[in-house]
Write a structure and sequence with these properties.
Chain A: Pfam families: HD, HD_assoc_2. Chain A: GO terms for molecular function: dGTPase activity. Chain A: InterPro entries: dGTPase-like (IPR050135), HD/PDEase_dom (IPR003607), HD_assoc_2 (IPR045509), HD_domain (IPR006674). Chain A: This is HD domain-containing protein. The complex is a heterodimer of chains A (about 450) and B (about 160). With about 450 residues, chain A is α+β, with helices and mostly antiparallel strands. Helix content of chain A is about 50%, strand content about 10%. Chain A has helices at about 25-35, 35-40, 60-80, 90-100, 110-115, 120-130, 130-140, 145-150, 160-165, 170-185, 195-200, 215-230, 235-255, 270-275, 280-285, 285-295, 305-315, 325-340, 345-350, 385-390, 390-400, 410-415, 420-430, and strands at about 5-15, 20-25, 200, 205-210, 320, 350-355, 375, 385, 405-410. A four-stranded mixed β-sheet of chain A has the order 3-4-7-8. Chain A has a three-stranded antiparallel β-sheet with strand order 5-9-6. A two-stranded antiparallel sheet of chain A has the order 1-2. In chain A, a hairpin with a 5-residue loop joins strand 7 and strand 8 (about 385). Chain B has one domain. In chain B, about 55% of the residues lie in helices and about 15% in strands. The chains are: A alpha+beta (about 450), B alpha+beta (about 160). The interface between A and B is large, with 39 and 44 residues.
Chain lengths: ~450, ~160
């Protein structure tokens, strides 16, 4: 029997707290899970620094990847024998679902920003490069790895296949919303996925939702909205992200300067600092390695690096106040100077963080041909964009909520000896001595 | 601080007005590919390169009162028009941006349709491939757009001129 058709002698299952069980029958899927590149995902947390806010959020990209695979597997079971669905694409969909996050690194959002990296690029490199994953995929058929890569990169010719893995109501989002809600312990994020799966219909080039299932989708959109503001945009998590980014910036700056020598050569980081990251180097860096360096860097001679690492490791985070760039630009410039006068480097200790600095998106119908919205399949077979039919979704997607916060080390300010500078800084930050805005 | 917001404001200041979010998305992507250092992250979506980060940043600029957004109902979809406000001009004046001169590129992009810019952006997305493969890829990922040989020829010429 061809490798692509081989089935395990008996079904394997992974116990999963979100989907109860993840079922594996295909030999290819079982082999992919066993590769070092896939096992590496166990060592990368799904939510990066969120566990500093919600201590339960220790789940990994490994859990999530299995979850996305399981959802796609269930969708495809429902699609069998439906018009427009070509079952020949089944294995391709399952592989793409399983491998879609393969290129994520540790704390990938901060790493990508600071070192100008792209996890999707590394996902494609792992799939098409000299790896165990590639070996397995090419055993399915020559060129199969490129197809998987194209599905994940959204450039595959069959858009229906692509939309299962990434669209505004896809298996990726349905898994992470539920999984993140479960592990953070919040009560939002839950929706009736079984109902959504039952009303999903394949059409020519996308997955649509039978209009009778609209209320289940409304619930999903509401969950998404709540999770963004309550979990993903949580200001304390953002504080940790700010510090993490500043650590990486500082370490890079020190590496590039001629008059600083690290006590231990930062071997795992060098290619990142030099902007020439090779695949094997990328795969070696996981969260345990990053934590190891941060632990060591607390002992470094550079005050900024050691302080930031100590803050990150011991959760001594920056405080924040709301910031309105329209009204407070002049005050910000004054603050910047006051921080300099006080000997606190504002490049590292005075940081404005905006909602657009985070990678999560909201449901937006968008303009025509800007992005693909969620379509409802009406009884007469016509398609209607969700927010045109649902008042709840229209209310949420029409509301543009954005946010800017100013982060700073309150403990350092409290210790300032120059009373005039200290007073003026606090006046600006807290507004005439009112400290209620400080979190 | 807010340097990426300021870069976008500089673009809107140059463009004076931009009609259509799709056109805006493709304009910024094409400028990025011409080495103008916008930092919004793009991914390939159903209609070509698309940046969620850009969408959110533009929303922020509207909420701050730096950009004026006018929404027009076109029966089955909305279209959005953007212009810079006086607050936006004041904000921009507080930045000394280190950006190359690219006003001529903005002018050229403005004269083109969003359909054409979608083609150009898609070709640029695959610009690491030989040109024959790029064209093949355009037809594969955009079969519904049905781009003609003349349009593709024009896009190649436009890209060469722009770069």
């Amino acid at each position: 029997m061809a490798y692509k058709d081989q089935q395990l002698s008996e079904e394997k299952v992974f116990k999963d707290p979100v989907h109860r069980y993840v079922h594996v029958r295909d030999r290819v899927i079982w082999d992919l899970i066993a590769t070092p590149e896939f096992q590496r995902l166990r060592r990368i947390k799904q939510l990066g620094t969120t566990n500093l806010t919600f201590h339960g959020a220790e789940h990994s990209r490994f859990n999530h990847s299995l979850g996305v695979y399981e959802i796609v597997r269930r969708i495809l079971n429902n699609f069998e024998n439906r018009p427009h669905w070509n079952n020949e694409e089944r294995l391709l969909c399952l592989c793409a679902a399983l491998l879609h996050d393969l290129g994520h690194g540790p704390f990938s959002h901060s790493f990508e920003k600071v070192f100008k990296l792209d996890h999707e690029y590394f996902t494609q490199q792992i799939i098409t490069g000299d790896t165990k994953i590639n070996e397995i995929l090419e055993n399915v058929s020559p060129g199969f790895s490129q197809k998987v890569s194209d599905v994940i990169g959204k450039t595959y010719k069959d858009k229906l296949v692509v939309s299962l893995i990434s669209s505004q109501i896809d298996a990726d989002r349905m898994d992470y919303l539920q999984r993140d809600a479960y592990y953070t312990g919040v009560s939002y994020g839950h929706f009736d996925m079984e109902r959504i799966l039952r009303v999903m219909r394949p059409i020519e080039d996308q997955v649509v939702i039978k209009s009778t299932g609209m209320h289940a989708v409304e619930d999903y959109i509401m969950s998404r909205y709540q999770m963004y503001w309550q979990v993903y945009f949580h200001p304390v998590t953002r504080s940790a992200e700010v510090i993490l980014s500043k650590i990486l910036h500082r370490a890079k700056e020190l590496y590039e300067s001629n008059d600083f020598t690290f006590k231990l050569k930062p071997t795992h980081f060098i290619s990142f600092f030099e902007g020439k990251v090779k695949l094997d180097e990328y795969l070696k860096l996981d969260e345990s390695i990053v934590h190891y360096y941060f632990q060591l860097w607390q002992e470094e001679q550079d005050d900024i690096l050691s302080d930031l690492c100590e803050r990150f490791m011991n959760r001594r985070l920056f405080k924040y106040v709301e910031f309105n760039p329209n009204l407070q630009m002049k005050e910000w410039m004054e603050l910047y100077q006051l921080f300099m006068d006080a000997g606190i480097n504002p490049e590292y200790y005075l940081v404005v963080d905006s909602s657009s600095d985070l990678p999560y998106d909201f449901y937006r119908p968008g303009e025509e041909e800007e992005r693909l919205p969620i379509h409802l399949l009406m009884p007469d077979d016509s398609l209607k964009e969700l927010s045109r039919h649902s008042d709840i979704v229209e209310a949420i997607s029409g509301k543009k909520r954005t946010d800017h916060k100013l982060y700073f080390p309150k403990d350092r300010l409290d210790k300032l000896e120059d009373k005039t500078t200290k007073k003026r800084i606090k006046e600006i930050l807290y507004g005439q001595g009112d400290v209620k805005n400080v979190r | 601080m807010l340097g990426n917001h300021a870069k976008l404001m500089q673009f809107f200041s140059m463009a004076e007005n931009v009609t259509g979010r799709k056109k805006l998305q493709k304009m910024i992507y094409i400028l990025q590919k011409c080495n103008i250092p916008f930092e919004e992250k793009y991914q390939f979506h159903f209609y070509g390169p698309y940046s969620e980060e850009l969408t959110l940043r533009v929303e922020e600029l509207c909420n701050l009162g730096f950009l004026n957004e006018v929404k027009e109902d076109r029966s089955n979809y909305y279209q959005y028009n953007y212009t810079i406000t006086s607050d936006g001009k004041d904000f921009l004046q507080q930045f000394a941006l280190d950006m190359p001169e690219y006003g001529d590129k903005v002018e050229k992009l403005k004269t083109k349709s969003s359909r054409f810019l979608e083609l150009v952006a898609t070709m640029l997305y695959f610009d690491d491939l030989p040109i024959e493969e790029t064209i093949e890829k355009v037809h594969t990922v955009k079969p519904k757009q049905n781009y003609s040989d003349e349009e593709i020829e024009e896009a190649i010429h436009f890209i060469n001129e722009l770069k």
